[in-house]
Amino acid sequence: MWAMIVKEFRQVRRDRRTLAMMIVLPVILLIVFGYAASFDVSKIPTVAAGPQAAALVHSLGKPFDLVAAAPGEGRAWAQTQLRNNTNGADVAVITGSGPTQVLIDGSQLFSAKAALGALAAVQEKAVAERASGSPVQRPQVTVLYNPELKTSYIMIPGLCGVILVFIGTIITSLGVVRERQTGTLEQLAVMPLRPRDVFLGKITPYFVVACVDLAIVLAIGVAVFGVPFRGSYAVFGLGALLFLFVTLGLGVLISSVSENQGQAIQLSVMVMLPQVLLSGLIFPLSSIAIGVRWISYILPLTYFNEISRGVMLRAEPIGPLWQPFVFLALLGLIVFTLASLRFRSFLAPAAPRHGRGRAPAALQPAAVDAGRAMQEAGGGPERGAVGDKRAGAETSGGPAVRAAAGQGDPAGPAGPADQAGSGSAGDGR
Amino acid sequence: MTAPSPGSGTGSAAAATQDWWGTEDACVRYGDKLALDHVTFRAVPGRVSAVVGGDGAGRTTLLRCLAGALAVTSGRVRLPPPLRIGYLSAGSGTYPDLTVDENLAFRATAYQLPAAVARERSAGLLERAGLSGARDRLAGRLSGGMRQKLGVIASMLHQPDLLVLDEPTTGVDPVSRADLWWLIAQAAANGAAVVFATSYLDEAERAVSVLALDDGRALASGTPEEIIAAMPGTLRVSDARPEGEARRRAWRRGGRWRIWDPPGQPGEPQAPGRPVPPDLQDAVTVAILARELAGAEAESVELEGGGSR
Questions:
Q1: Residues B244 and B170 in one domain
Q2: Rounded to an integer, what distance in angstroms lies between the CA atom of residue B299 and that of residue B306?
Q3: Could you tell me if A38 and A46 are in contact, meaning their C-beta atoms sit under 8 angstroms apart?
Q4: Same domain, yes or no, for B207 and B81?
Q5: Is residue B146 part of a domain?
Q6: Cα dihedral angle (A376, A377, A383, A386), rounded to 10 degrees?
Q7: Tens-of-pLDDT digits for all 309 residues of chain B?
Q8: Is residue B12 part of a domain?
Q9: Cβ–Cβ of A187/B87 closer than 8 Å?
């Protein structure tokens, strides 16, 4: 048993990445769950429309936080603010003609629930204070986009993103690193394929599969779970496309820094886990401590969540969604550039090929001289003259090799009996 | 600098008249290690050349340079354009999760072979190599020898001008080796300059020219006859291991001992064994031995010199 323990420790020590994962992952999880994992909403961004609406929001107190006020506007303005998530608004208070209205954005599930709870508390307090007096005027509360506050409504648009991450990052990284493991990578490297062709050829199937998967998840979400799809398919599709580019790029990037599929899976999980936990998919972004929240804003899923929930539930048009679109495009550009650069060196580990200008400085003197061969083409002997008695004039039998190759003479030409087949250089000394 | 792509199958006019492909004074350095040390190697169209050497001798490094997979650190490499090179890397270089036909179809497309030509050539080569019945089998399910044959067929399907095969026959049974040799001969008959690496010296003896590498350096090169003729000294064969100083110059081969007597140090008349004419395996072994002994001698001289100061 001791031998086994020592061997195992040696192997673990050698595999730096696993070691790092064993030590770093618990720390990351602790931080994430400690600071980020919270369903509590301490602040609800609120907009006020109509006369005295701002004062009314102030009087509501915590957790309502006034982010914009428009005394001259009405319900239409307020609803647009919620739909477009302007200033992150989750609640709108509208005063003016008729009773006070409160609109709540049901696509922000936790904020909506917190808002309903807080409003009820305010009501109770008001009733208690006015117990002897006049009746309390109850505001008209409407939950928009997700009136029944169903969890599936917010989870399924987010899950679309998780599925794209899964295929784009994990499956793609496995597919590419497999070439290294099967030993076909070197073969690919010398084939007359441009790195770009190999790169695109590699990711296109995963792209198609991811698109089909996305369509299936959406169809099931809408048909089985009744999740509405209120916005534009084109805007959603564009967002998914951009997001997919980022995740595919991440997949290729991971595979190009991994030696085997095990390492690729480890890295993919390390990329996927924070996206699931910190992108707002499960825990509301506003509840994540600011020290950790910045991580959310470098994760592509955060932006895809904004797009998918905005488009599917609130019918948000592309205009107000420009920020997530721009950030996704930027992330895609960075990741894709890094991935294709890494992929080139992944394809030709030490080898700039055939004057394509990819030679590292240290290798520049090495002249791979395809051009000279072409220039000198006229000077060489005719092919027929190249072969001597052994050369390729014959077209059958053993033309260019010395013995009659393959004609019932597998073990070699008539050599001394003791050399059969195993005499390697320096062998047996 | 992209060379014009020649028509598939027929070979370009330039390539057809090219007298050799290979390296001139090539060095390859991995960090501190010089994996190839000023090696000149020429592969001639229509001929089969062998690169031999022990493990770590630099065979694979040289072949990777010839395949265009590795750039030399210094020196020159003269190669056809990638489209006209065929390469079998160590291992079969085929996809285990694709069938034999699918593997060949992928290779044909990558090398821009018209589908009809590819089908015809594949069928012919598979038939001759005894793989016709395995066309729908996954490459991963083939035996080692069958997979090697598939790898060689895949690398020669586009009838390259330069065919580079890294240990095509290692771990292959004698019958499959015969098939492999037929394929190699066929490629040369089609006009390819064929280079193969092997650790089997009897196999290298079939090649028209041989380059023996040791520790990244060219140990011997030429036709097998030239290499054998260039062997210094004489050779004895004995049933018993020699005693004394000759022990360092002896090695076991088959059930007997070969003893090399360097020039100027002919075996004493009473020394055991009878003279035997060397073959390629002996000549290469002697070359390695001579280098090792010279190295050891130089080292001891150096030590003595250092001690006297």
A1: no
A2: 10
A3: no
A4: yes
A5: yes
A6: 0
A7: 333 333 333 344 444 456 899 999 999 998 888 999 999 999 999 999 999 988 888 999 999 999 988 889 999 999 999 999 999 998 788 999 999 999 999 999 999 999 999 999 999 999 999 999 999 999 999 999 999 999 999 999 999 999 999 999 888 888 899 999 999 999 999 999 999 999 888 888 889 999 999 989 999 999 999 999 999 989 999 988 888 888 888 999 888 999 998 887 655 655 678 889 999 989 999 998 888 888 777 766 665 554 443
A8: no
A9: yes
**End position of a domain, from candidates B186, B204, B223:** B223
- Are B80 and B196 part of one and the same domain? yes
ipTM of the complex: 0.78
Judge if B155 and B304 occupy the same domain: no
Measure in Å the smallest separation between the Cα of A372 and chain B Cα atoms: 7
Classify residue B10: in a domain, yes or no: no
This prediction has a pTM of: 0.74
Task: Tell me how many domains chain B contains.
Answer: 2
B147 and B271, same structural domain? no
Chain A CB contacts of B181 under 8 Å are: 398, 401, 405-406, 410
Q: Does B252 touch chain A (CB under 8 A)?
A: yes
Q: Do B178 and A351 make contact, defined as CB atoms within 8 angstroms?
A: no
Please tell me whether residues B142 and B272 are part of one structural domain.
Answer: no
Two tokens at B33? 């290690």
CB A85 within 8 A of CB A322: no
**H, E, C per residue of B224-255:** HHHHHHCCCCEEEEECCCCCHHHHHHEEEECC
Q: Which domain holds residue B261?
A: 231-308
Tell me whether residue A9 is exposed, middle or buried, using C-beta atoms within 10 angstroms of its C-beta: 0 to 12, 13 to 18, 19 or more: exposed
In a shared domain, residues B183 and B34: yes
